[in-house]
């Protein structure tokens, strides 16, 4: 039985703030495994990484933790599916940092004269010696046998190898004759469609050394086609209906057509041979032949234009033409062999690629300015890197990363703005293209009219509601009541931030503000109607328009998947250490973690803690036990957790920043926000539904990460939020 991937993360209490480097660490390992020095993340653990079906990152543009909790009830799918959550520091250049470009140096060359043939643009002799092509092959011309991949190179680049366990049932071409520099070259390329089995060949092309097409055949896949990938493959349902040719027929024909000393040429040819389920001992891979630093690769389309002066894979055509691609790869290999490494290095392909990217970026400049986007940041994100960025590492292993949204990957890999794209269009594209990619970044947005300009007003609304939820009123008391007794009784529910006597009423009341949501809720549940300081009192929260849905919100927080198996315990003596508590609670069955909150300023721990259990039923059983406990002479109170994970930390930050600002209410901003808030709720609800639809379409064993990147602008700064999990058979995240 195939193993399922599983994710384990210690994101509990204060250990839940993740940097962009740590996020990159997770995504790189999830997509690449142990390739390219990828290691298990330091802050979480992926079990059975090799069984992951893919990685999907959903980015909610210019949204933050603030948006998630302001519209918590509207994000119904997100809060019920993703168990693991973390705080994310905001970044001014989020997408670049996401796939590892943030810290890399920018190109030193200017864009002027890069396509000129003058001597000014020719690399100097010293530069030529450092060129990766010269370092790999030297400067002298060589015969074709010097450029065929060795067995070790084939293994490293995932070529099917004779006798390999993963190639059981593959057909060997039996071309065993020794190769010479006059051995015949053949260009090979395939197009695939997505079927229930995976990627299956639906078209195969073979060309000879003169560019003559020897084979250009449609192939009927064995399994039902799930996605024809027409935009890339050029294949339609109508084209395959009359086809009778099967993969076995193509394998037989290729074996007969290829001479015993044939050398196959292709661009990332390993993917074609894997799809053909064939093994051939002698290959030239043009994606490796035209070497770049640190294993990065040029695209076939770029090489055809830069080296041969030919335009291939044109957007006007319906899909790629495998015969055209096979011919282009063959001619590139012939050019390299005939001209030699020195002549190829003098083309300065790296600089030509930089020029192309600058040209693409400048074409979008006017549109970007109209939307108030920072064009210079886009130009600064050119992938001229000292080390391979995340996307390049993926391409090395034959994976095609997908980026959909307001910014899409152009043919050269540069982030390009697509300002007219709606969330509906992005979803439609994602449903079609995500199954074809093992790593996808999908970006949704609420639109610029709802982003940074409303941040201040939105922040005040959330802060005001949070304050009300942490506050309770208790009374009435007798005129001469003992305030110390009241503070002691209510303090058993959890840490108190402030307490004051309300004298505006006929009889005195007490207003208490707690530091954690659970404490306020526990006070309402356990002390309403109780006798405190000689009076039978009523305990309630403030009654405001924003608090009318408080009970619904509390109930949903209890049901939040992040709080499954977690309970809150109050009434602890402050003299007890974490070690003492671990010992006291050790008798509870399936206890996994204990979190003891500390005052963020003094560092002293509070009189409450959170207990996380491996099983939900164990948490239910523990509640019954703890509520009858007395620990070191102190009676304990407990309930289900409401804000056990990163939310606890965020609540503290929101309250503390409010105090530093003196609690100023930005009435003008709030009034502006009220006008559009109803519409905004509808948009958030629709956004949550689209994410749900995309998530349900994912294969089981897919790692899905949803990111609220955070906001860092002139209007203010707010931390981001990450939600993650691996989809299991039940549609939830593990």
From TrEMBL:
GO terms for cellular component: nucleus. Residues 670-697 form a coiled coil. SUPFAM superfamilies: Ribonuclease H-like (SSF53098), RNA-binding domain, RBD (SSF54928). The keyword Hydrolase applies. Transmembrane segments: none annotated. It holds the Pfam family RRM_1. The keyword RNA-binding applies. Residues 106-129 are annotated as: Disordered. Residues 470-544, 565-643 form the RRM domain. Keywords: Coiled coil, Exonuclease, Hydrolase, Nuclease, RNA-binding. InterPro entries: Nucleotide-bd_a/b_plait_sf, RBD_domain_sf, REX1-like_exo, REXO1/3/4-like, Ribonucl_H, RNaseH-like_sf, RNaseH_sf, RRM_dom. Residues 106-120 have a biased composition (Polar residues). PANTHER family: RNA EXONUCLEASE 5, RNA EXONUCLEASE REXO1 / RECO3 FAMILY MEMBER-RELATED. This is REXO5 exonuclease.
């Amino acid at each position: 039985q195939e193993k399922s991937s599983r994710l384990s993360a210690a994101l509990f209490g204060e250990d839940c703030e993740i940097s962009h480097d740590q996020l990159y660490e997770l995504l790189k390992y999830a997509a690449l495994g142990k390739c390219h020095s990828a290691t298990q993340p330091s802050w979480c653990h992926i079990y059975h990484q090799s069984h992951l079906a893919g990685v999907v990152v959903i980015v909610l543009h210019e949204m933050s933790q603030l948006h998630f909790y302001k519209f918590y009830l509207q994000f119904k799918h997100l809060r019920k599916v993703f168990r693991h959550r973390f705080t994310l520091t905001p970044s001014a250049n989020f997408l670049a940092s996401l796939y590892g470009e943030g810290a890399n140096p920018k190109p030193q060359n200017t864009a002027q004269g890069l396509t000129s043939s003058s001597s000014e643009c020719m690399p100097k002799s010293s530069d030529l010696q450092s060129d990766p092509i010269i370092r790999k092959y030297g400067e002298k011309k060589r015969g074709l046998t010097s450029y065929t991949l060795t067995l070790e190179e084939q293994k490293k680049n995932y070529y099917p190898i004779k006798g390999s366990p993963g190639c059981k049932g593959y057909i060997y071409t039996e071309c065993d004759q020794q190769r010479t520099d006059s051995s015949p070259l053949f260009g090979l390329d395939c197009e695939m469609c997505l079927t229930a089995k995976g990627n299956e060949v639906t078209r195969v092309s073979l060309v000879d050394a003169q560019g003559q097409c020897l084979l250009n055949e449609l192939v009927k896949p064995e399994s039902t086609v799930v996605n024809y990938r027409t935009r890339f493959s050029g294949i339609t349902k109508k084209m395959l209906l009359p086809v009778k040719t099967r993969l076995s027929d193509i394998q037989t024909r290729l074996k007969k057509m290829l001479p015993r000393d044939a050398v196959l040429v292709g661009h990332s040819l390993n993917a074609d041979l894997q799809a053909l389920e064939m093994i051939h001992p002698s290959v030239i891979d043009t994606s490796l032949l035209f070497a770049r630093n640190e294993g990065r690769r040029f695209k076939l389309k770029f090489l055809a234009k830069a080296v041969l002066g030919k335009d291939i894979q044109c957007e006007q055509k319906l899909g790629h033409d495998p015969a055209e691609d096979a011919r282009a790869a063959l001619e590139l290999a012939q050019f390299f062999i005939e001209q030699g490494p020195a002549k190829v290095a003098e083309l300065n392909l790296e600089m030509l690629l930089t020029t192309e990217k600058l040209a693409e970026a400048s074409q979008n400049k006017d549109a970007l300015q109209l939307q108030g986007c920072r064009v210079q940041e886009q130009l600064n994100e050119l992938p001229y890197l000292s080390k391979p960025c995340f996307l390049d590492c993926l391409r090395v292993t034959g994976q095609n990363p997908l980026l959909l949204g307001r910014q899409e990957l152009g043919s050269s890999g540069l982030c390009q703005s697509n300002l007219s794209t709606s969330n509906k269009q992005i979803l439609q594209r994602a449903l079609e293209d995500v199954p074809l990619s093992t790593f996808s970044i999908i970006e949704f947005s609420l639109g610029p009219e709802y982003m940074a300009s409303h941040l201040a007003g939105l922040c005040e609304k959330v802060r005001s509601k949070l304050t009300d939820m942490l506050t309770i009123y208790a009374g009435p008391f007798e005129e001469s009541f003992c305030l110390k007794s009241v503070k002691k009784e209510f303090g058993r529910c959890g840490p108190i931030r402030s307490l004051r006597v309300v004298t505006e009423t006929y009889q005195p009341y007490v207003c208490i503000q707690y530091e954690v949501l659970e404490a306020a809720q526990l006070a309402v549940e356990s002390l309403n109607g109780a006798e405190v300081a000689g009076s039978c009192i009523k305990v309630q929260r403030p009654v405001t328009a924003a608090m009318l849905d408080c009970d619904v919100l509390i109930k949903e927080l209890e049901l939040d998947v992040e709080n499954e198996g977690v309970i809150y315990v109050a009434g602890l003596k402050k003299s007890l250490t974490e070690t003492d508590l671990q010992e006291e609670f050790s008798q509870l069955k399936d206890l996994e973690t204990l979190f003891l909150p500390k005052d963020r300023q003094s560092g002293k721990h509070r009189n409450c803690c959170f207990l996380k259990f491996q099983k939900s039923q164990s948490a239910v059983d523990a509640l019954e036990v703890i509520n009858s406990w007395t620990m070191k002479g102190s009676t304990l109170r407990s309930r289900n957790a409401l804000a056990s994970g990163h939310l606890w930390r965020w609540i503290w930050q929101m309250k503390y920043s409010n105090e530093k600002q003196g609690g100023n209410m930005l009435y003008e901003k709030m009034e502006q926000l009220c006008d559009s808030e109803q519409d905004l709720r509808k948009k958030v609800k629709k956004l949550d539904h689209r994410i749900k639809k995309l998530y349900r379409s994912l294969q089981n064993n897919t790692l899905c990460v949803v990111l609220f990147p955070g906001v860092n602008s002139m209007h203010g700064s707010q931390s981001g939020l990450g939600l993650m999990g691996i989809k299991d058979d039940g549609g939830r995240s593990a």
